[in-house]
């Protein structure tokens, strides 16, 4: 089943200490391009997140927005700098003794001095951080993949319908082709008779030779056979369980090539009109294929 390259997913995960929020969106791209925007404190997990995404997504540009919020007290520690506090206290007592200062030395006074109370970031458990981020990322990735799959089904249905219409046009071209040769023969006969004014008897063998040469030059049998083969391969690819975007793009290019050849070989207005229809439908499929993984 084919998948679109367009999708969005959001995932959340939390424990007693922190909460992760991951938003993930993907758009069409020729290659697999993954961009991660995350807090610096999580930068060491960037490659792990990318590998997680690459396991599921083989083509397209994927942007991840990761946020981290502390919801508990586990990430910070508040500590008293005892040696420094003792030095401050000694200095204050020395001031009292030297200058006969009677003001009391209070806790609030000591706490105001620099670095008496230190706020430190607790050492983080990297494995625990990864488990939380992985959980949120997988939830977002699952929703994104579901959206890509749903849109892929719709794209496949549209392409199959257009392939059926293209097959009908090809049948019409195939049916019309022999008539073009017969009409050419009759027009050539009429033109020769008109020029000769019935003064000279028409050489049927020579006329037939000219018609055979024209039929050979204008033959589109090979192109029709290849077009039908490409349609079969295209419909078969739509049912494969792997990325087929590039394969479909190649098949559309080849089909365009065959249609252009038919157009260049034919001087018949009806076939030329069919060629225009074919090119129009192939262009619509090509636009859809640009968004298939």
TrEMBL record:
Required cofactor(s): a divalent metal cation
Limits of the Endoribonuclease YicC-like N-terminal domain: 2-156
| UniProt-listed InterPro entries | YicC-like_C, YicC-like_N, YicC/YloC-like
Name one matching Pfam family: YicC-like_C
Give all residue intervals belonging to the Endoribonuclease YicC-like C-terminal domain: 173-293
Keywords, A to Z, come to:
Endonuclease, Hydrolase, Nuclease
Gene Ontology MF terms: hydrolase activity; RNA endonuclease activity
Q: Organism's domain of life? A: Bacteria
For this chain, the family text in UniProt reads:
Belongs to the YicC/YloC family.
Protein name as it appears in the record: TIGR00255 family protein
Please tell me the species this chain comes from.
Geosporobacter subterraneus DSM 17957
Organism phylogeny: Bacteria, Bacillati, Bacillota, Clostridia, Peptostreptococcales
């Amino acid at each position: 089943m084919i998948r679109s390259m367009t999708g969005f997913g959001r995932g959340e995960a939390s424990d007693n200490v922190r909460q992760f929020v991951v938003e993930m969106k993907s758009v069409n791209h020729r290659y697999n391009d993954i961009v991660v925007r995350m807090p610096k404190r999580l930068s060491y997990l960037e490659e792990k997140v990318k590998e997680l995404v690459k396991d599921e997504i083989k083509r397209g540009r994927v942007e991840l927005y990761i946020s981290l919020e502390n919801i508990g007290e586990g990430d910070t520690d508040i500590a008293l700098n005892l040696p420094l506090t003792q030095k401050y206290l000694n200095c204050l007592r020395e001031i009292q003794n030297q200058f006969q200062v009677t003001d009391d030395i209070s806790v609030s006074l000591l706490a105001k001095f620099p670095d008496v109370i230190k706020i430190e970031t607790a050492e983080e458990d990297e494995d625990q951080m990864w488990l939380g981020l992985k959980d949120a990322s997988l939830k977002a990735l699952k929703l994104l993949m579901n959206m890509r799959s749903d849109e892929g089904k719709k794209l496949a249905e549209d392409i199959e319908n257009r392939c059926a219409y293209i097959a009908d046009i090809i049948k019409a071209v195939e049916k019309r082709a022999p008539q073009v040769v017969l009409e050419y023969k009759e027009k050539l006969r009429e033109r020769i008779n008109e020029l000769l004014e019935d003064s000279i008897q028409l050489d049927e063998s020579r006329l037939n030779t000219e018609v055979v040469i024209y039929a050979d030059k204008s033959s589109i049998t090979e192109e029709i056979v290849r077009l039908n083969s490409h349609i079969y391969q295209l419909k078969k690819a739509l049912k494969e369980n792997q990325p087929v975007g590039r394969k479909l793009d190649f098949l559309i290019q080849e089909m365009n090539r065959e249609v252009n050849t038919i157009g260049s070989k034919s001087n018949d207005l009806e076939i030329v009109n069919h060629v225009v229809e074919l090119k129009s439908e192939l262009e619509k499929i090509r636009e859809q294929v640009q968004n298939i993984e």
